[in-house]
Structure formats: C-alpha cells, structure tokens
Amino acid sequence: MTAALTLQGVSISFGGILALDNVSCEVPAGQLRGIIGPNGSGKTTLLNVISRIYPVSAGAIRLFDDDITRWPNHAVARHGVMRTYQRVALVNQLTVLENVMLGLHATRTQPLLGIAFRTSGYRRLEREAVDRSRETLEFIGIEHLADRKGDELSGGQMRLVEIARAIVARPRVLLLDEPAAGLSLVRIDEIAALVRRINGELGVTVILVEHVLNLVMSLCERISVLVSGQLLVESGSPSEVQEDPRVREAYLGQARARGHGHGPGKGDEA
Amino acid sequence: MTLDRPQRILRLAAVAGLAVLVVAPWMVSLYKVHVLNVLIINIIMAISLNLIMGYSGQFAKANVAFMGLGAYTMGLLVTRADWSFWIAWPTGALLAAAVGTLVALPALRLRGLYLAIITISFVLIVHWTFLHARFLTGGASGFSVPHPNYGGLPIPNTQATYYLSLLTLLGAIWMVRNLVASGFGRSLLCLAEQELVAPALGINVYATKIAVFALSGLLAGFAGGLHAVTLQFIDPQNFWLLQLVIQLCMVALGGVASLLGSVLGASIMTLLIEVLRAFKGLWEFAIGAILLVTIVFFPRGIAGLIEHFFPTLRERRHRP
After folding, report:
1. In principle, which of A13, A221, B157, B227 could form an S-S bond with B147, CB 3.0–4.6 Å?
2. B201 to chain A, closest Cα gap in Å
C-alpha cells in the first residue's frame, strides 16, 4: 500500500527542549490514524510540523512521492494537506459559506487581473467555489448555517464549519486537532460519524489527534502513541494500545506526577 | 437578484450622490468645485489606506508617502522633462506601486506597532527628501504644476480635472469592490484575523501582502497625481503626518474593511475640516475628538453601525 505520509527521524526543538525526538512513522493512504498521548507530549507539534507551520530541526517528511520537508507552508496545503485547530480558527467577518470558500484557495487560485475586471473565467471559478462549498455544507448537514457570520455559531457548529473548510478542496490528508474538545457527548458522536464518512466516502487519509480516548479507540484502525516527544507505539490496533503496559504507565505516571494520588491500577485514564 | 428595502434605499442614495457630484461643478462656485475635487481624492486615499489597514489588518501607514511619490513623480516629469500629464500620471502611480512593494517587505516580518513605526519612519524619510532635495523639488516652497492638456474638451480645466478625479474614483470603487468580493478579498480578511491559519489554507501570505501593498500604492499614486493638478501646486506639507492622521481618521470614522465606510468617512471628514477651517485650531481638536469617540464607542465606524441595523447592507465577500 502507498504511504500517504512518511516521517523519518523527525525532531524539533524549541530553545533546547526537544518537543519531537526522532519520530518515524508511516500512514498508509486511506487510513484513519489516531494519535494519542498525555498533555504536552507533542501531538499538536507533530501536526504543526506536518503542515509546515514549524520547520523541523532534523529528519524528513514525505507526502506521497514528494519530499515536503523544506516546502513553504502554503505549498503543503496546495498539495492536499488540510487541517483544523484545537482552538477553532474561523474568520469572523466572513459568513459560514465564505469561510468554507476560503478552503478552496488551496486548489483554485483566482488570477488577480481576472478578479479586478470580473472576467468570465473568474466568475466561473467563483460560481464553482460557491457550489462546491454549498455541497460540502450539505454533506456535513449544516447548509442552514450558510449565511451566518463566524461569531454567531455555537462551539460545535464552529468545529463543523472548520471541518467543512478543511475538506471542501478534497484534501489527500486531513489533520484533525482535537475535534471533540469541549463538546457534549451527542456532539462527539456526530463528529465521530462525520470523520468516519470523510474517511470512508471521500477516501481522505485522516490523522486524528484527540484527548477523548473513547473516540479514538472506536474510530481509528491504527493508533500511534506519543509520549514526551517520542513515539512509544508507532502503529498499533486499539486493543494492542489499550493493553500495552507502557502506555498505561505513561498516562498513569503523568497522573501520579500531578499528585492525583492514584496508585498503580487505579485511576485508569487510558 | 432581488433587493430588499434598505438595499434599494442605499442604491438610490448612491445614484443620487453620484448625480449630485456630476452636476455640481455647474451649480456651485469654483472654490466649492475645488473642495469637492479634494473630497473625491480623499475618498480614493481612504480606500487605499483601508485596503491595507482595514481589509488586510496590517498596521502600515505609508500611504501618504505613496501619494507624495505619485504627485512628485508626475509633477517633475511634466515640469522638468516635458512629459505629457497622461503619461506622467500613470508613471507616478506605477512608481508608487513599486515602492509599495518595497515597503511590503518589512511587513512580511513585522506586525502591529513595529510595522507602524517602520512605515511612519518611511513617511518621514520621503517627506525629508521632498523638503531637502531642493535642486529637484524646490524644497519647502514647492513648485507649480500646469493643468493637464485636455485637448479640445469644451469645458474649463477646473471642471475637467474634477471629472477626471470622479472617473478615477468610480474606477477605483468598481475595481476594489470586485477585489474584496473575491478569493483575494477573503484571503485579506483571513490575514487580518487569522494570519497563522492563512498559509495552512494555501494562501501565500507573502504574495498576498505584496499584492495589497502594490495595489494600495497604485491607488495612492493616482490620487497624488490628481491632488497635484487639482491644487496646481506640489508642496511637501501635503504629504506629512497631519495628512496621515486625517486619513486614518477617515478610515476609522467610516469603518474598517468597508468601501461604503471609506466613502462616508472621507466625505464627512473633508466637509467637517472645510466647515471648521474658519475657527483656528478647532478642526484639529475635532479630529482628535472624533477619533477618540469612534474608537471607544463604535470601533467598526459608521459602516459598522449601518451593518448592525441593516444586516443586508453588509459588504459582500462573494459575488458570483
């Protein structure tokens, strides 16, 4: 199977602190991969490295056949890596529909002169952008929100809009950074169903970073476990990960360090 | 597309306003034609500044220098090199746009206050150059600029220049309206609100910033040339910090990221300054008070108030 994303010995340090330490893993095309790990283990940093927000200190990142390690960050998006954020990042001056249209920037750049003079070619691009964005809102089931402004939405709706923006251009790889954070259980189920459809129906490779472990365990075929910037488990099935004593120790150890008073065997966060 | 009531009223007001501007030169005194001409140029400047400060949220304040470069380039080419105004004017605007791209370079790295300081320093440097390159610019006493050659146009020069400004304004509004209701406009707003997210959406932040600075410089350059032939005089004091503050005030009062706001803000400020001119020192005070009240009580300006009460009048960000 072809690998959608390959990380080879990726390291990154901030002021002497190694946030990612020699991380190597491979995500096959079409997989729904979960990444778990205790707070501060480097999960979001890993996503930021893949979407080239941070330059790596060492190692290489491949997207299908391309080495994207040194690419400018907008080029990575243009080659089909889209993402969402832990703290939702919508543009509040735009409507929901227009926020989703932003996601098409990656693949459909409109020529500036065409825009300035409203050529027929540009108008066709813009019409297509509107249609594609409406279809995506319908796919997610939030077409009724199309004309609302970004700041008029609930937290759950914002997350759905952000996912719509990330998938409207049919990315090859979708990076989801804690899409369930702060949501109610019903909402989490909705997100889970949506992620499954994005992976299944649209065939998008998904990398899901998440704190809600039930969600990851029920959703992902393979799971990577990141602890203190190192990959403890490169790729394991949910049951393998759950039974791995090192994973339990990583989570429990952290709980103990925080002084929660859990003895071994109790306080089973994992 | 069907229009609702506020939209129809706005359209009617725009047509009425335009009609007034078209017939005004034949109904009022020459001095008032001059004031209206300055008003039109100020609207172009407010749009130019709003593109950078409002739409793309960059704290850059170099536009008054771009305007000066447009004016001086045009004026010097006409008076020293005997160029026709019709070639010298766009040349000045293109030079201002080119310099705009240079000023965009620090904006690629700097943000907020630092960018403001750098760009204000740029205004000071340009002004200093106008003032001290006497062999070229005439220094503080400036120099006269002739009317453009309007060929066989059967109307007086003052009115002809007025109509030239009006046409330029209409062209600028049309083009900027197209730009802000497109993928380009949406990426500008993304830069303003979520600069770190923009590249992850495939937006080339560098190219977008350079494009908007060039565009803003181009508009300011054209406005500068018009300003010179309207006054028939070029003087470094017209491209100084006070003008910068007045233009900031126009954008803040009218409303950031709004064309309607730029038009209203520039019109109100120009007329206010004109009315208060008789009372020495009063209009500077008025500017300060307006800026303060706007920023504290309605930070999105008049356009923000209008949009609040009539949501359908929101400026469109897509127009397929």
Report:
1. B157
2. 6
Residue ranges of chain B with per-residue pLDDT less than 70: 1
Q: Which residues of B touch A112 (CB under 8 A)?
A: 179, 184, 211
List, run by run, the mean pLDDT of 10-residue segments along chain A (270 residues).
92 90 95 92 92 90 94 91 93 95 85 91 94 97 93 91 95 95 89 95 95 89 93 91 87 61 39
Residue the block writes with tokens 């062209």: B171
Closest listed residue to residue B266, CA positions, set B12, B61, B46: B46
Beta strands in chain B (DSSP E): 143-144, 233-234
**Long-range contacts of range A5-8, CB-CB < 8 Å, 24 or more positions apart?**
A5/A50, A5/A61, A5/A62, A5/A63, A5/A173, A5/A205, A5/A207, A6/A60, A6/A61, A6/A62, A7/A50, A7/A59, A7/A60, A7/A61, A8/A59, A8/A60, A8/A61, A8/A62
Q: Is B187 in Cβ contact with A105 (below 8 Å)?
A: yes
Global pTM reads: 0.92
Residue among B189, B199, B319 minimizing CB distance to A74: B199
CB atoms under 10 Å from CB of B31, counted, come to 10
Q: How many CA atoms lie within 13 A of A114 on its CB side?
A: 15
Q: Which residue of A has its CA nearest to B208?
A: A112
Query: What ipTM score was computed for the predicted complex, to two decimals?
Result: 0.91
Bridge partners, residue A231, by sequence: A226
CB contact A167 to B (< 8 Å): no
What is the Cα–Cα distance from B278 to B94, expressed in whole angstroms? 37
- The three-state secondary structure class of B91 is helix
Q: Report chain B residues whose CB lies below 8 A from the CB of A118.
A: 178
- Please give the helix or strand (H or E) that residue A155 lies within, else none: helix A155-167
Q: Tokens representing A36?
A: 């778990």
* Best CA proximity match to A24, nearest among A249, A250, A231, A261: A231
What pLDDT is stored for residue A267 in this prediction?
Answer: 37
B211 touches chain A (CB under 8 A): yes
How far A169 CA sits from the closest chain B CA (Å)? Answer: 10
pLDDT at A270: 36
- Residue A226, SS3? strand
A51 min Cα distance to partner chain B (Å): 7
Chain B residues touching A74 at Cβ < 8 A: 198-205
Which residues of chain A make contact with B216, given a CB cutoff of 8 A?
Answer: none
Question: Are the C-beta atoms of B102 and B65 separated by less than 8 Å?
Answer: no
Q: Hey, where are the domains in chain B?
A: 28-147+154-240
**Cβ pair A126:B196 closer than 8 A:** no
Write down the pLDDT at residue A125. 93
Helices (H), B81-156: 85-109, 112-132, 134-137
Q: Is B189:B176 a contact under the CB 8 Å cutoff? A: no
Please check whether the domain covering A3-236 is classified as CATH 3.40.50.300. yes
From CA B301, how far away is CA B282, in angstroms rounded? 22
Looking at the partner chain, which of A77, A102, A130 has a beta carbon nearest the beta carbon of B320? A130
d(CA B261, CA B279): 27
Predicted confidence at residue A266, as pLDDT, reads 38
A44 in reach of chain B (CB within 8 A) = no
- The answer to whether B101 contacts chain A (CB < 8 Å) is no
